[in-house]
Amino acid sequence: MNSKMNLIMLLDRLEELIDKAPEIPLTGRVLLDSDDVLDLVDKIRGAFPEEVKRAEMVSTEKDRVISEGQHKAERMISQAEEYANKLIQESEITRQAQQEADRVLEEAQRRAAEMEEGAKAYANDVLTQLQDSLEKTLAQVTKGREALEPTADPEA
């Protein structure tokens, strides 16, 4: 309470000093003794309550913390953007790899179908040749058997 009263008294003293100062004609200004004014300003500064000084320190600290928080937030946003870009790139790589895998699988299935058709055609050719060969062999066997059969006698 004492510092508050002291501050008010010092401000009253400053006002009184200004009121009693001689005026410069036609300017609306006054002449003040700078030593008196500066002495009074020093006393006013010294009379500020400790809470005001602490509030000034808290305000300065608040500004520092806010600035630090903003820098930290900007770093976090930057890191998040980098991470998101990395995920997007990995996702793109995964998508491209899946497309390539699908293409390779499709090609393999096409080739397998071609090979299967080729194998069937080859097997059919071999079986056709075997059948022809067997038919020729059967025809020879039939002729051989007919040759071995006794001929029917017309006299009998």
Q: Point out poorly predicted stretches.
A: none
- Give the CA-CA distance, first to last residue: 164 Å
Largest sheet: 2 strands, antiparallel
Number of E-state strands: 2
Number of helices: 3
Going across the biggest sheet, name each strand in turn.
1-2
| Mean pLDDT across every amino acid position | 86
The helix-and-strand class reads: mainly alpha
Helix content: over 70%
Percentage of β-strand residues: under 5%
| Rg over CA atoms | 57 Å
Order of helices and strands: HEEHH
Looking at the structure, what is the overall shape?
rod-shaped
Summarize this structure as a short list of keywords or feature phrases:
85% helix, 156 residues, mainly alpha, rod-shaped
Explained architecture:
By secondary structure, the protein is an all-alpha fold. The protein is built from three helices and two strands. The longest helix has about 100 residues, at about 50-150. The model has no long low-confidence stretch (mean pLDDT about 85). The protein has a domain at about 75-145. A hairpin with a 4-residue loop joins strand 1 (about 25) and strand 2. About 85% of the residues lie in helices and about 5% in strands. It is rod-shaped and about 180 Å long. It has a two-stranded antiparallel ribbon. Helix 1 runs antiparallel to helix 2 (about 35-45).
